[in-house]
Backbone:
């Protein structure tokens, strides 16, 4: 694999243009208005996999959006790598905050990306990182460097809970059998300091509806005499945290594993500047659970955040109305051992219990997923670390991420194999935000590093 | 005026059709998208006034929407009645909750309106009630029954704070000089029990903006470590009421006049069924300030209600985002002696003071108005009561309303005359709500009653 660097620089422009074409399709899984685009993206990924050298590729129907599957089996006795990624993207709104159209990709340089970055929804999460694996496969097959079997499973519902993927995996254990699962859907510390994500948070996501009077009312004639659903919802949301920002849902922390001081000290070694963090977000003060650092709050601790709230008159000017209904989307990030379904049930029970008689409350679960921790002593982790060390010149640092990839825990349960999270994005890439981007350096470095993982993993498997 | 009843029933259909035409114009003053419609409505009102017998009518330009003015002076030595109304309407949203298009009026019968009611935005508030006065004038002029001078002042910004009206009144005291001001922009107890509104609440209306991070963030990577503006806004809103639903803004109650037990006992005599009230709104329990009845809470007590709230992802499905900003529209209903501007300042000071350092807060005043109380011993009130007694067969009951007509206090200050609030709507007419309507009975009864007010007022003025 000595010529991998040369191969990447030789095909650089084509690699970028192919990704840009893929990014032009608005595959927003959360909004049914884009359903045809999501399906078209699946077809584009299938075609890319065949071109990259898969012997068989297929669009696997599911109850939801299809799974794109592809494989190249060179020898049943050799190890098999299962690559997972997703071709759906987050909604782009608020679109008005994008400097360029979210589905009209352009390459611009930034402080963090002097070689340029591709700006588009999905550039990093996850089309760009998924496509690195397609191009790495192209290199290995075209150059006769593929050292083992490979399977691809690319889904279209990651941003809405991967429920169809779970359905698919449970029914295809044989087809998906593998020795290691490889995913690039996370980040690394910086372009000079690679890291491997060894922990993920779980997720419980619910939508709540508070109903007061059966119709919107004049706030003068009724104000003060009836429960205002917006005021009540605000009160209920406020009560979900105490003065130390602990979550007040009974039983919420029961399963939370407390890390040892040693582990916390180990985590604290990762380079981090609170000042730089606050400056990057333009905030005067950080905020969170008492007794934990910023990096602990967003990785090893569970959280509860309102992701959206709406009710009453939100148009121009003033309307003196008491709304009939108020709504909120609320998500909880969970740590390993907290079970998503159990937490969702605890939330629903508690939220209904704190509602005053003067309103009616409905809690609708959206989706969830379990947390996950990868041991750093398995060969998958070691192979990945050796690959990073070779291409970046320094070893990777193991890191807990605050994000969730709900299906990683499912993979281990159903497929009995470990997942290695080789991320090449940066926290500053604004995934889920306006102006999401992915560094050209990171994209190409990923394509360069992935084949080495295959090489070392096969060597270590012997 | 013996033939008034006959005249009304003879012209009933035309009176209805003329009002329906006026209701078809969507004069939503809060939304600039409708500005041309608002202006067209002013022209339509001007034309209606000339047809009804005004000698002079004009469109008076202001910094905002124009005031429609009309007058008929028959003898400078006779008393002058100044009629006030507004031709603008509330926004119609949520439009999807209307059973028929808000600006495509239809007449349907209801339990409360067996003779039918006109369903349209503005049917009751205030186009329908304002147009009763136009038709009453038509009767008096066409039948030679006008006993005094009359002036009309119809504005287009009542639903957004009447700021241009204040500007106009301050500059036209001479033109607007009068002996009594007559307004139909309130309600009555029922179609068998008329009432006259003797008190109005003031209003302070603000919009608040809470800013956390400078961009939307991924709730997994940042959740728990940064202040979520929606959670913070909810906390701040919740803290504005204590456990007894008293408002916690320091100084908020300082100017509030406490009614004597006698006055409260007098109020309590008005027919009212809490069960019927709760059933009408489909609520299991009323809600409000401890120590006061439902009718006291919505009339003699000040309130604080969130009229609208929004932030984050409010679309279909789930988006795991921490919003950069959250917003709310908040209004406070004030009682006589509470000064709107002072309360707005108290709110802003308090709201900024309770914001954690981790967010930035902006408070923008929308508009306000002062409360008002009419004595029941002046001839204006007595003439109105005699008119109701004649047409309804029973005397009217004096009633405090929870609503606000911000300019009534201004009229007394600038024009030195009392305002009589002859309302013909019902609380169930759903003003400011979807499916606003106005009873055909109420509309015609108003046209029948108003001329009698003129007659008795002139007689009592001698």
Residues:
């Amino acid at each position: 694999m000595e010529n991998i660097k040369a191969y990447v620089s030789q095909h650089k422009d084509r690699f970028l243009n192919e990704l840009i074409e893929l990014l032009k399709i608005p595959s927003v899984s959360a909004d049914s208005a884009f359903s045809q685009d999501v399906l078209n993206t699946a077809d584009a990924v299938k075609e890319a996999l065949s071109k990259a050298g898969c012997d068989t590729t297929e669009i696997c129907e599911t109850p939801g959006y299809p799974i794109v599957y592809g494989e190249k089996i060179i020898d049943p006795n050799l190890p098999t790598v299962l690559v997972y990624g997703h071709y759906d993207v987050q909604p782009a709104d608020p679109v008005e905050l994008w400097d360029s159209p979210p589905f009209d990709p352009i390459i611009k340089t930034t402080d963090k990306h002097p070689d340029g970055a591709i700006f588009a929804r999905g550039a990093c999460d996850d089309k760009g990182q998924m496509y690195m694996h397609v191009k790495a496969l192209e290199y290995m097959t075209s150059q006769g460097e593929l050292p083992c079997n490979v399977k691809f499973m690319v889904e279209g519902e990651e941003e809405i809970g991967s429920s169809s993927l779970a359905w698919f995996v449970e029914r295809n254990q044989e087809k998906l059998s593998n020795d290691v699962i490889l995913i690039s859907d996370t980040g690394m510390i910086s372009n000079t300091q690679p890291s491997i994500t060894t922990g993920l948070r779980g997720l419980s996501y619910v939508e709540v509806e508070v109903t007061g009077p059966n119709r919107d009312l004049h706030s003068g004639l009724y104000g003060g005499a009836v429960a205002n659903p917006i005021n009540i919802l605000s009160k209920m949301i406020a009560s979900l945290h105490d003065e130390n920002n602990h979550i007040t849902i009974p039983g919420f922390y029961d399963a939370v594993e407390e890390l040892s001081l040693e582990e916390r000290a180990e985590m604290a070694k990762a380079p981090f500047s609170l000042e730089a963090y606050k400056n990057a977000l333009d905030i005067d003060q950080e905020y969170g659970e008492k007794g934990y650092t910023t990096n602990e709050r967003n990785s090893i601790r569970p959280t509860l955040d309102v992701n959206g709230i709406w009710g009453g008159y939100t148009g121009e000017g003033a309307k003196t109305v008491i709304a009939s209904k108020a709504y909120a989307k609320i998500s909880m990030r969970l740590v390993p051992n907290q079970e998503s379904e159990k937490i969702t049930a605890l939330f629903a029970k508690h939220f209904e219990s704190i509602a005053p008689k003067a309103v009616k409350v409905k809690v609708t679960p959206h989706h969830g997923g379990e947390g996950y921790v990868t041991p750093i002593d398995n060969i998958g982790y070691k192979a990945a670390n050796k690959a990073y060390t070779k291409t970046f010149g320094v070893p990777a640092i193991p890191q807990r991420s605050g994000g969730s990839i709900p299906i990683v825990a499912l993979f281990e349960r159903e497929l009995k194999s470990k997942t290695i999270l080789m991320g090449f994005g940066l926290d500053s890439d604004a995934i889920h935000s306006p102006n999401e981007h992915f560094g050209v350096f990171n994209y190409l470095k990923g394509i360069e590093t992935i084949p080495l993982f295959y090489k070392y993993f096969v060597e270590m498997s012997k």
Observations:
- Chain B touches chain A through 101 residues (CB under 8 Å).
- The first helix of chain B runs from residue 4 to 23.
